[in-house]
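Task card 7
Instruction: Convert sequence to structure tokens.
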Amino acid sequence: MGNSYAGQLRTTRFEEVLHNSIEASLRSNTVVPRPVFSQLYLETEQPLAHDGRTENDDEDDEDGSESNSPPIPYQMKPPPEGCCTTDGFCQAGRDLRLSSLASDPLDVPPGFMLVGVKPPSLPETLLVCAVDRRFLPDERGHNALLGFSGNCMGCGEKGFRYFTEFSNHINLKLSTQPKKQKHLKYHLYRNNQGMLVKGAPICWRGHDGRMRQMGSSLSEGHVTSDEQPANMALTHPSHTPGTYTGSHVDPIGLPQTADVPHSLTNGNHAVPAVTQPPLSQSGPGRPSAAVCPAGLHANAGPPKKRHKGWSPESSANSLPESTMKTPPSSAALSTLPVSSVITNGARSETAAPLSSSQGSLTPLSPPGLSVTIPDQLLHTCRLQPVIFKGHGPLPQLTGNVSEVLVSSLLQSCYLSSQTLPRVYQHYGPSPIQPLSTEMQILLTVYYLVQLGTDQVPLIEDLEQIFMRSWRESHLSEIRQYQQPQTPASQGRHYGIETPSILPGLPHHLSLPPQSQQPLTPSQLPWLAQLAASSCGESVVVLGEQIRSLAQGIQQTFSRLMEGRLESTNYVVIIVTAPGQETQSCVVVTGNHQCRALAESMYSPNEGLKEINHQLSTGVAQELIHYCDSLGQDGDLDSLLDSATVDSNEPSPLSSSQESTEEKSVKTTHSPKDTLSPKDSHTQCSKDSPSPKERASSPKDTCSEYSVEWREVRPIQLAVARKLLSHVCAIADSSTQNLDLGSFDRVSFLILVPPSEVTFQQTVLHLWSSGVLRELGGLDQDCVSQREAERYVVKMDQSAQAQIDSLIQEAHSNSYTLYILVHDHAHWDINSASCSSSDSGLGLVDPLLNSRQVRDAPNILILHVTSFPFALQTQYTRISPYNEIHWPSSFSNDVDLYHERTRYFGVSELLESTRSGSSLPLMRYDSSFESMASALEERFPKLHSAVIRTTVLINHYCVALMAASGRIGGSHNLHKHTSVETLEIVQSLLTAAQQCPAHHGHMVLLRIPSQALAAWAHRRLSRVRRQLGLEESFEIILGNPNQALNIGQSFTDQIKTWLKIQDADWVPRTYLELEALPCILILSGAEPLGESLPRSLKYCDLRVISCSYLQRTTLEQELGLAAYLVRAESRPPHNPGPGSDLLESDAEKLSSTDNEEEEGQENGDSPLSSSQQLQSCPDSGASDPFPAQSTTSPSTQKGTMDTIPSPSQSQTQLQPQPPSQIFPYPQPASHHQTQPYSQTQPISQLQPQPHIQSQNQPISQTNSQPPQHQSFSQIQIPHPQPQPLPPAQSRRQHSKSTSSGSLSPRASSPHLSCSWARGVSRPPSVLLPRALYDIITASDSSGLPRCTSFLPHMSVAWASSFRPLLSKMMTCTEQSLYYRQWTVPRSYHMDSSNRTEGRSDNFHPRRLLLSGPPQVGKTGAYLHFLGILSRMLIRLMEVDIYDEEDINYSDQVEGVQYHPPNTPWPNPDIMKAMPFDYTIHDPKYDDISSIYNPGYKPSAEGNHVRQEDVYLRRRTSRIKLSKYAAYNTYHHCEQCHQYLGFNPRYQMYESTLHAFTFTHLLLGEEIQLYFIIPKSKEHYFSFSQQGGQLESMRLPLTSDWSPDCIKSPIFTPTTGRHEHGLFNLYHAMDGASHLHILVVKEYEMAVYKKYWPNHIMLVLPTVFNGAGIGAAHFLIKELSYHNLELERSRRLEGGGPASDVWPFIILADDSCVMWNAVDLDARNGPVEHAVSLKQILQHMEACPDLAHYGLCGIRKWSSRGFTGNKQREPFSRGHLHDFLLLNVDRSQNVQYDQNRFTCHDMDFTLRLHSAGLLVCRFNSFSVMKKQIAIGGYRTFIIKTKMTDVPTSVGPSQYICAPDSKHLFLATPAQLLLEKYLQHTSQKLFPLSTRNYTHPVLSVDCFLNLGPEVTVCFVSSRPHSVNISTTGLLFSGLLLCFADSFVTPGFLKKFTFLKGATLCVISADRSSLRQTVGRLELEEEWRFRLSDEFQTANAKEDRPLFFLTGKHI
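Output:
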């Protein structure tokens, strides 16, 4: 804040004075603002108010029509003959008066609004008309189209296109040119009674009703144009040169207001007020116009000085003035936060009526009063005063007007704080009043009083004070209004701040709440002077004797000329005359403040132009000469000429530089010495040389240097996955905006700002990331970087062609997904329509927002930026759900991602300033600041950037001379530079000398003006040359438009370090300058995303502009210093005061392992995918240099801290084979509790050989970057460093130049390289004092002050009543905050993104990735491209079961039944074929084999498989064909209608129908439910009366249609609502078909949700726990019942009954594709994908199909056909998975409803034994997808006691009846089946592995486990059974034996002695009956203990079984 008291008063005297003033005012019954006083006191934390510069966009609009220039005479056309001319009526004679039409229903067309017109002849009347809202302004007076379109509400005539014509029609009778701005006065709206009433005045930029005649004097003030003094002949206010009277069209300047209701969120600021254009940041530099008053700039002609309001040039509170920059004419209004609320859809715009005290805003300057500006004002006072308009009209200025600036910023602030938020007007007359004029003036005085002498006022601060004062004075009322409408904004209520005492204020200043009475005008001057008296002469109040503003201003000028205001910064003029409204203005007379405010009126571009102008015209020469003179020490040039550069004497660096070739030979290499092109950028490995080598060439190699190629860091991987999941979420949403399933590859284009270095850097990251290889485009090994350049585009004029070609390509390749990555996305967000061709901006808008890109379904846009705020406005195109924020890698100090690095960014830099005892990493240079400000006073006309840059470069030159030692010692050069600069230069020069390989570090000098940067480069290069230091360090000019250019010798040096063989290689990115000692002068208005190497040590930002206070601008500059440091080290907190001088300070971060960077930074190594490197400078420390190391040992804190040591397990030194490389070094040994004083050279700590154990985190002092060190180079002998004697550890601050020399082991290379020491610390940042104060201050929410600034110059605040950002907000909440409270200005590309009638305009395929600068976003998005590509390939593939058929015997029968090409089977031949009982399906290789007389099992038998083995069955990954079935994740255009997105039906519209039928086996009547979507009702017939479901319609056998499948398809399913393959649209190739999902009752809702357009058959409740047998049973029986119903329906209709189609299809829910065999292929039979439609139509067309009971197809296997199937097209045997069932023929054979397993084999065996034909079509096959979720096999066996599945062994599935046993909550049948499967070898011991003696199973097939063979026989008469003569059975299984099983039947079979019998029944009595009925006791022996039951409780109906032995 400019003084060390941070806003506290400095003298007790002031406190007394204020105290007395309060008492006095209380006694006088008037108000002293209560909390006002508190606010006066802006504490350091004051949040900044917003940047509200109003921009006025209306140049020339009013044209002085309301000013005092004479009106233009205007002659109206005479009205047509015979028409009505009565006032208040239209020419058709209809009444238009509001009073008459108030209650009439009026027809207002859509898009029109009712407006009140004020006729001059009837001043009290309003006429009603309808006007197209596009031609009306929004609440801030912006965005009205030029022109007019209106309708007459009297006669109804429509389509008036000109206001002139319309005004004639409604009989306005004007004497001046008709202007809509003048006569369309009010919005009209219906009140609660439905009456039409007058609403808010229409906000015609400052011409609105409330501000009566504001026009001219607003525009009057811009009297200055710095750049063209000549034009300024301002004789009359209305002709301000283009400045302020802008017309409506300023393309850039209109802040748009949101028409979004901002509701008041808890008071803080949240009122829906229209935005006040941003206050804070718009400093001088918005892109032109951006902030300037609206019309002011930009395109108004030659650049004029913008009168933007206050802007800080230095100082914590500087208000960027321009925040309100309102140009005169509109000034006032455009910034009024007129709140906009949407009422009934129409935007009603009301501006709150201003309180009466405010009428004085009227800007008509009283005639005759003018002020003459004295001649020579600038020359005499050396400053250009700034006049802030306040209340009342400013008098006209005449005379030397170019020497005074006028700003309406303050006036706009007054207006906006008097515009009550509309929320308070809804309730009728409100007790809430805006701040009075007097109170505003008094608060302004209080604010100015407490500003420091070097602080510039910030309008935001003042506005904040007004807001808080107003809130506190109306606290109770505000609370009352808040109740009803306070949406908690973003999920948190922002509480109203209502501390009764504001923080930091003396208690006696806060008044008791009720003490408020109005402050009277007569008290105001007195109170104001009282307040000002406390600050000496800094603020002067002229009030008591002043009768007019003109008099006050004249008096101020006189005092200025007389020199009486030298110590005064502000003159406040107050005019209070009885009966008149109070008037005021503020004249700024402080030198520093005037300069800062004047400069902040330039837009950034204009500022740069002005600087160029001053340099090119030589104006700056005098300053340069002045700076060169060093007083008694001579001048710079003569001293340089005397520099003792002797040609024989080697320059300090060259001596050790002898031969780079030798060096490269001696440096140890990583295992590959010869680098393949791919490695040409890979680094010197970091192996330390073995001791011998080290000895032989100690000075040529640096063992520390390493540029490591890095893998993607874990956090980047996490972010890439987050991006991928967002893309998948878009694809999965029901909006159908992205059909990922339809893309088979990814292509991309990366758009970068037009900086050559950024372009090359992105290419480098891309090239080295491997993404190109992954996308299949190129072979990485032979690809050159040039290839990668095709994928990166610089956004300059040439970009259009590349984007156009991409759009065309996207159009023609609809199966490729194109990703447009817009990197550094905040850089160009200008709207194309508002950008001028020379600005280079506005290119992104037409490319990314064009209709072709927006509508292309295969283009996805990813914006990537560190500063997303400008893309988060009310009109944003990016959905909040599509934002991805970089996660924090640490939470409560827990490393969430196991990163080896920790990010060090802006917040950590700020933290370092608060630590207190150490030299912070971020600081300002006070001696530089004082020199610069002295020169600013001396050269008032020069731009401060020119002055500051000249001083700074001069300091560098002097420091170079002093540090080089070439200037004779008699000159005391140190006093002509600053300590900071000298330290930087000494550190730069000495670093390279200390390292044998001459590694050094980078100094970044940021000079935004390219002209100044070029001058600085020339100047420094000349000094370097004259001092003979050309070989010592490089000076690089970083110009965004040019490629990087460095000297050949330095290029050779880098090539040596990086071991690059390519002769033509040159560095193209700053990253490749790793370890090069250099000064990089980075120019350009803003950094464009260039990453800096790890060797960056100083970030010198001392000359960046302080005028543009937007959050983005500030954070972008500070982001240059962002870096990744080792996670173990902490940011420097207390390195002790001396730390600056010492290289290895205690807390300086020493992390070397920057994952991200390390690779990156290395020079050219292809940057690791994590692109942005951050540099890690040390905490300000320079390499120690002699002059300054004065720290005493005692100050050193923290040196004894122990290093965090890795866990013990890791630190064991493990001998490893030499080839093994250690992944990352770790501290030598765990027991080093020895204080590694971080400040001490590493060589003292560690024995020379430097042991490293396996993952050693380098200790904080250990400055070596991680090395790949092979084991052979590590010496085992010293397992542990020797503890240092304490004395030694304290010596480190000695003055020697090399920290290594402090210890006897100084020769150790570990210390000699200062690059290696510095590389583990963030850089030091030097800032201008003004910015430092602002950045380090925090606002009342505890956040750094800069976060509350306007986020970006192209947005504006939506309201001054917004809350502050809160410290607790997450990134997402911050985004929501900006989305609610900012609106884009008119030149922002999103400003047009508001279409009528749409609530959101989010682009569905647009994502935003935001993360702090240099954190690795490039690496993350490149990795995302790679994994997206992999995923698309994976999405097109599916895992298919691929197993060979089992149980084929070796002897193949030679009989060929059908010729291979036979299309259909012949029933007679099929009957002749033997039935193949053997099971061949590989999924059943763990079940009992079925006895088949012709089959001989192979010797080894089947191998036993585990129960869950089906999860591990063999699969193949197959690409989906175009005929695949899909699950719910597939969306494509064609499927829309199929899935229920049918325009004719409401989605999800379906009805539930009950259907009852009886079946003998079920006992009672069963009720089923069908869910039938409306679109499928035609498949069913309903009764005529009640609409009851009667039957499902079936076709006739004779029907045939090429696009129709006759058989209904039933798919039983459970647990697979998402994963079941029920989308058969593509499989059926579009054919119409009836598909019914059969679901369990409890799953009905979820299936219906996912498949709204599918018919569902819901099983009865009793089947909820049943298995697949029940589902198939019910489907089959229901189908037969339906067949009979259909036959009777046909009979009633007179048709043939027998002709109804009797087939149904039973399909598994995992059938994904179908194939057919092509026998005619040249290479033998080939399978190819076909549609399911083709297969079904072929089967349905089979001429004899009715003869077959069941048909099916083969299961696919990649091994083709096994056995005889190859030649036989049809076979008889078991069928699975996909069945065509004849329900008519199979009527008497039912599925077993109780079965859970093997039900299909059981059914096929019974069907065959019943004599029905079973046929398998071998020419077709079905592929089954592996679905690991759900399905009928996933029954879990658990106990009744707990729901948790417990491991229960099969032996526990049964128990003795009546015993106490653990009961299971599992169906009895399932327990029985599982028991038999797992324990049958105990039950049937004779049967185990005994194929020739099977177990006889009567009438059913049960799985007895793979060891047992079962022989199936049917007891039914006439059934077909195998011949059992001669067979001896080893057991008998009777399961629910029915009456067909008789004792006689059983006597036909013979059993081995000791064979086992097992009889199964439903209860004990039926068990006994069966034994008796079948006379079993004759041949079998039973024991009482042989009776068992399943382990079920009685209520669960256990099954019982009895075992016996054959006698």
